[in-house]
């Protein structure tokens, strides 16, 4: 694990954008794993700027998002489809057919949808670089604290902690879907490289447990400590509980 601590969230996100830009320079046909949430927005903003400056080309890129709510219309502004469209896709030259988000129609237990998503990732050659945020409870994607790590893409029941944290995107907490479909921990561990951004004091405990705690499915991100290529980008606040180095 490589850990980098920056003064501000903006700087941590800028570092993530550099890593993605470098990946696309090195391998223009990269398969990227993307994330939603507030944290990566400045990173996407920087990538859009690089694209507009002619520095980054997405024409040969394939993307797979980590997760999506179940039973939500793509047009719903709270869907992750809409989020990605707004914050990245419509600003860059990605091919529509190269964009993937998992999808579990209402009533689907996620088994068939999950297997189809895993097969699509495999058919694309696997994910080269995966972007992650982290939940206050240590979740990555929608892999919530649990008694065991998950493997492939699957349907999850969201924890109250996550529902409360995501309520800010909806009119009320009652509107937050109770289920989502998410890549599993196995999918994330299979990515060639992972970049995790965490900013703000609310993430400090999760980061401490990820970096220094035991590997524990109750802190899903803790498994990253044995991934061979993980870069963690933090601002001062998210790093505030880490022992001084
Ligand atoms: P956030 O979400 O970036 O909105 O804090 C991160 C996550 O829950 O993975």
Topology record:
Elements: E1 2-6, H1 9-26, E2 31-34, H2 41-52, E3 62-65, E4 67-69, H3 80-87, E5 99-100, H4 111-123, E6 129-132, E7 154-157, H5 160-166, E8 179-182, H6 185-190, E9 193-198, H7 204-212, E10 230-235
Parallel strand pairs: 1-10, 2-3, 2-6, 3-5, 6-9, 9-10
Antiparallel strand pairs: 4-8, 7-8
2-phosphoglycolic acid (PGA) binds next to loops.
What does this structure look like?
The chain has helices at 9-26, 41-52, 80-87, 111-123, 160-166, 185-190, 204-212, and strands spanning 2-6, 31-34, 62-65, 67-69, 99-100, 129-132, 154-157, 179-182, 193-198, 230-235. With 245 residues, the protein is α/β, with parallel strands linked by helices. The protein has a single domain (2-235), classed as 3-Layer(aba) Sandwich (Rossmann fold). The chain has a seven-stranded parallel beta sheet, covered by helices on one side. Strands 4-8-7 form a three-stranded antiparallel beta sheet. α1 packs across α2 (41-52). The radius of gyration is 17 Å and the shape is globular. The two termini are 15 Å apart. The mean pLDDT is 95. Bound molecules: 2-phosphoglycolic acid. The site of 2-phosphoglycolic acid has 6 residues, from loops.
